[in-house]
Design goal:
Aminopeptidase; alpha+beta; globular; 145 residues
Length: 145
């Protein structure tokens, strides 16, 4: 890969929305997307020849817990190591926030079938003998037709 560059905290709304669309994720309004970016603890984008091919986004308090909220790799750049580079940078960033003598939780919810990718980077699949399953709730205010 030529002209490969990681860029931190510079993802704009258009790039975010285009990358989300490239992998078929739910559509967001521009207002939602901007609020999500503004509320991020850290973002990292990966660019090849100055074109965005992937991004990662962290949310959380930066002291006790962080979440990898988005890890997106454009389909044209999948299987090139882009996801590995992004997640390693996110983990490195969270490690840099972790105070000596403490422990930070780094959580995520992965798409079905992606468990092995995250396991390669030290994540544990839930449930375990000590941890219950992850859970989710959607608060839906879309118009019903």
């Amino acid at each position: 890969m030529s002209e490969l560059e990681l860029r931190e905290n510079v993802i704009d709304v258009d790039t975010y929305l285009k990358l989300r669309a490239s992998v078929g994720w739910k559509k967001l309004t521009r207002k939602q997307a901007q609020a999500a970016l503004d509320g991020s603890l850290f973002t990292v984008g990966l660019y090849i020849a100055d074109q965005p091919v992937g991004m990662g986004r962290l949310v959380g308090d930066g002291a006790v817990i962080c979440y990898i909220q988005d890890l997106i790799v454009h389909p044209n750049a999948q299987h090139l190591g882009v996801g590995h580079m992004l997640i390693e940078r996110l983990i490195e960033y969270v490690d840099s926030l972790t105070e000596d003598g403490t422990e930070m939780m780094l959580d995520l919810m992965c798409a079905k079938g992606r468990e092995e990718f995250y396991s390669q980077h030290g994540f544990l699949a839930r449930p375990t003998d000590k941890l219950g399953p992850g859970m989710i709730q959607y608060l839906d205010k879309r118009k019903k037709e």
